[in-house]
Specification:
By secondary structure, the chain is mostly loops. It is 14% helix and 0% strand. The longest helix is centred in the last third of the chain and has 13 residues. It is globular, with a radius of gyration of 19 Å. The chain starts with 106 loop residues before the first helix and ends in a 25-residue tail after the last helix.
């Protein structure tokens, strides 16, 4: 006679360990690694994360594109991940536009992730993993990456004008095309930003994750 007893529940995986499922980003290029950044278009600004690049070829893989011959990203806003020096926390960014935002900082800082005006004015680490949420300000409890992308789009006209001025002044080569509008972030991440699983290579390279914090509020579930 068949037993009708309820089977015991499957134990939840420990923090930082993904539920065993097919890896969802097998078709995407592998995250290059912590502080592994390809050659960038001359004179173009650095940026804090995926989908925030100002032109073609400006992303983690650079002008050569990801391995496999796919080629570089084709337009502003379509790049894979950050191009500035990776950092782990509030005010550790080396230049403007490199503040990730999330765990520490003021509400005003958390309103503008990826758009800080100067070195050491950024809030939290880069790259900005999709699970990270703001802990202060009007974006409290909501996605940092989605806010960063919204700010990028809002600021696009000003960004474009600044790039044209720099090109006219000779700071950007005259041969460098300047896009008129940004494209969408890579489709697999367009609704979320770069996820913990992708940055950590399905949890195998946890050293790629920089935003930890003793409180665990990076949202990633664990770091190296």
């Amino acid at each position: 006679m068949a037993s009708c007893a309820t089977p015991p529940p499957t134990p939840a995986p420990p923090p930082g360990v993904p539920v065993p499922t097919p890896y969802p980003y097998a078709a995407e290029p592998v995250f290059p690694g912590y502080n592994v950044i390809g050659p960038q278009p001359e004179g173009m600004p650095l940026h804090a994360c995926m989908g925030l690049n100002a032109c073609a070829g400006a992303d983690r893989f650079g002008t050569a594109g990801p391995p496999g011959g796919k080629g570089p990203n084709a337009c502003a806003g379509q790049g894979y991940c950050s191009t500035g020096t990776d950092h782990t926390c509030h005010v550790q960014n080396d230049c403007k536009g490199q503040g990730g935002c999330g765990l520490y900082g003021t509400g005003e800082e958390m309103e503008s992730p990826g758009a800080n005006a100067c070195r050491s004015q950024g809030s939290c680490a880069t790259p900005i993993n999709a699970e990270r949420f703001s802990t202060n300000g009007a974006n409290q409890g909501q996605s940092v990456w989605l806010r960063a992308r919204a700010v990028f789009e809002t600021n696009w006209a000003a960004t474009q004008a600044a790039l044209k001025a720099e090109q006219a002044a000779g700071k950007i080569p005259a041969t460098q095309p300047l896009p008129t509008s940004p494209g969408a972030a890579p489709a697999a991440f367009a609704a979320t930003g770069p996820t913990y699983l992708w940055i950590s290579s399905d949890n195998e390279a946890r050293g790629n994750m920089t935003a930890c914090g003793s409180s665990g509020m990076s949202g990633a579930g664990g770091c190296s």
